[in-house]
Amino acid sequence: MRKFLLFLLLANFALSLGAQELNCTVTVNSDQVSQTNQQIFRTLERSLSDFVNKNRWTNRTYQENERVNCQMFITITKFDSNRFEGNIQIQSSRPVYNTSYDSSIFNYKDNDLNFEYIEFQPLVFNPNVVESNLISVVSYYAYIILGLDADTFALEGGTDSFRKAQQITTQAQGSNYSGWDQNSDRSRFELIDNLMSNTYREYRIAMYNYHRKGLDILGDNNSTGKQVIAGTMKLFETMINRRPNAFLIQTFFDAKADEIQNIFSDGPKVDIVELKEILNDIAPTYSSTWNDIKY
Predict the structure, then answer these.
(1) What does UniProt give as the signal peptide span (predicted)?
(2) pTM for the complete prediction?
(3) What stretches in the chain show pLDDT beneath 50?
């Protein structure tokens, strides 16, 4: 009987280890704050790391090698008692099939981070109510990371995670914290609203085609993989012709510009002239990167 109970305990422990979806490095930088006691920032960093990595965000059980690699860099610019202001940079990546390469999926800086925090207070996510803006922001980006990652493996595979990010946004709009306002440009509201809108559906199709049908086959069929990735740029061209300066286009190329330049500077050739014209049309801020494509 004792052996059986031990077996159940070990089995439950193994399941709990496999339940976590994120492998996230959390960094809290307080260099801009003149505060002699830095301990509160270290405590915050440890607490957030535990919160992000040990929380179960979905109903799916992830194996250790399936966890999504990501980073959250929080820079504190103002600190007064229990009030914090700053920004948060979020980065995530996913492995490319049959290679040792990790492809950047999301690289975004949110400048509207403000929250209240008391050292050692428990960080608990309640999906039904906003109890802490810090928890809301971090949970929102956890779901954005998971949704984008899932979209690269299955067509619109991230919908469930995006719905949860949208639920957080709806609840947070009733708070006094910035970054959730639907009338602000480049807000959390705009990001999740665009991801869930049919107006920008090409973005999610492109995420799947680029990664699953393009990157993942480059190792086995470089020419076909390149053709698929080049075709993905035409999807963005369709989207931006409908919605110039689309927010999602910016987020995509902030993560992908250097990778695209490297892909098309080596190996089998595609129509680089046409490709560069499209890239300069949809992502002109990276024109110097496109000019560096060698062919």
Answers:
(1) 1-19
(2) 0.92
(3) 1-18
